[in-house]
Write a structure and sequence with these properties.
- By secondary structure, the chain is of the alpha+beta class.
- The chain is built from 8 helices and 10 strands.
- The strands form 3 sheets. Strands 1-10-9-4-5-6 form a 6-stranded mixed beta sheet. The chain has a two-stranded antiparallel sheet with strand order 2-3. The chain has a two-stranded antiparallel ribbon with strand order 7-8.
- A hairpin with a 5-residue loop joins strand 9 and strand 10.
- The longest helix has 30 residues.
Length: 246
């Protein structure tokens, strides 16, 4: 990993405290702004999900409403895992490394988590074994789910300029992209889409980045965004693993 050059000013404690108090005011402003944005997000209207998606899961075919696992809210991480691909996205994996411990808490706040990818179940299961993840992960390969929620585009769509990733604000490409979508279920069992985020919005879910953002070197990305991020079993000090084919 390449470290960014850091040349700090060395000052007295009193001079440091003056600047720290200025920063504290901005941090408080950011907290209030974040709270306001979160309130606006919660106030978004809902859209009824009318397509009868049926996913392939280890428990058999399950509809979207069944993925809620008895709760009223569902977060779906759109993991970039294409059928037959030998590429495991480092960014998606980095994010999903944060899920298992956290979900044991937010499940008690009435939120269920599942990852969904177009890859078939056997390929998903192999990745879960390799990475040691225990969260639910369904296959959407037989459905239009990924395309409908803006995380899959065909070469024809790209050529026609219709790969409108991130609500048309970020260029998309042919194949799978990442994102997160939130759904709610009412007392009658109807399912609604309430929110989706894409591109850099998912950085809020990366606890490791939040820690690094507190430090002088920050994310230490001198050679480009996330340049040092690897699958957690591919760092130099990672324990050896057997491949995920068994």
């Amino acid at each position: 990993m390449r470290a960014e050059s850091v040349t700090p000013a060395i000052v007295s404690r009193d001079a440091w405290l003056t600047q720290r108090l200025d920063l504290l005011a901005r941090e408080r402003e950011l907290t209030r702004h974040r709270d306001a944005v979160a309130a606006q997000r919660r106030a978004l209207p809902w859209v009824a999900v009318e397509t009868d998606y049926v996913f392939d899961t280890p428990a058999g075919p399950r509809r979207l409403a069944e993925l809620f696992d008895g709760r009223s809210q569902l977060a779906v991480y759109h993991f970039m895992l294409a059928p037959g691909s030998d590429h495991l996205c480092p960014g998606c994996s980095f994010l999903c490394d944060h899920v298992d411990a956290a979900r044991r808490h937010f499940e008690h706040g009435d939120l269920t988590f599942t990852a969904i990818s177009r890859a078939p179940l056997d390929e998903i299961a192999a990745v879960k074994r390799r990475m040691g993840w225990t969260f639910d992960w369904a296959s959407s390969g037989a459905t239009s789910f990924n395309a409908d929620y803006g995380v899959f585009y065909t070469p024809e769509q790209v050529a026609a300029g219709r790969a409108d990733y991130n609500y048309g604000t970020t260029p998309g490409w042919a194949g799978d992209l990442h994102g997160l979508s939130v759904f709610a279920r009412d007392e009658a069992g109807a399912v609604f889409h309430t929110y989706s985020q894409y591109a850099r919005a998912s950085e809020t879910l990366l606890g490791a980045f939040n820690w690094l953002d507190l430090t002088p070197k920050g994310r230490n990305e001198g050679e480009g965004p996330m340049n040092w991020v690897r699958l957690h079993d591919e760092y130099d000090d990672a324990p050896a693993h057997t491949c995920c084919s068994s």
